[in-house]
Amino acid sequence: MKINWGGGIVIAIVLFMAFILFFVVKMSTNSEYDHDLVTENYYKSELAFQEEIDKEKNLNMLLDPIGLELKADGVLISFPDELNPHKLNGKVFLYRPSNKNMDIEIPLKISSNILFLPKQDLVGGRWNLVIDFTHNDIPYLYKKELIL
User: Fold this and answer.
1) Which of 82, 84, 118, 137 has the smallest number of CB atoms closer than 10 Å to its CB?
2) Which UniProt keywords apply (predicted)?
C-alpha cells in the first residue's frame, strides 16, 4: 500500500493529537504533577497585600532586626529586646511549597525573646517562615525563606 502526501499529513496530525492527549491524561491523573495554588483563597489574600507592606514597614522601624539562626537541632528565632515577649500576640507559620500537608502553624506565646523550633518537626528542604504578630497594637510581619 502506497501512502500519498495527503494521507501522510492526516497520519501526522492524528499521531500529534494522540501524543498531546496522552500527556493531558497523564498530567491530570498522576498525583506527582498535582500542584496547588500558594493559598486556597489566593485572590482574597492579594487584596490584603498593602496591609502586609505596612506590617513589614513597622518591622523595619524596630531598632534591632529579628534574628534567625539555623542550629543542628532546630531553628532559633530571637526577637529584639525592645519588644516585651509577654505583649507579643500572633502566629508563626511555616509554609512548605512542595506539600501543603506539611504546613505548620504555631501560636506565638513566649516568655523570653527567644523562640525555638525543633528540627524534628521539620523535614529537610525549603520552608517559608512567616511571623505575623502584634506588639502594643502595632502589627508586624516577618518573612524569610529557610533551607534545612
Assistant:
1) 137
2) Membrane, Transmembrane, Transmembrane helix
User: Within this chain, do residues 98 and 115 fall inside the same structural domain, yes or no?
Assistant: yes
What is the grid cell recorded at 6?
Answer: 495527503
Q: Rounded distance, CA 1 to CA 44, Å?
A: 62
CATH number (domain holding residue 84):
2.60.40
Taking only the tens place, the pLDDT of each residue in 16-34 is 999 999 988 888 887 776 6
Torsion of CA 45, 49, 54, 58, to 10 degrees: 60
The 3-state DSSP class for residue 112 equals coil
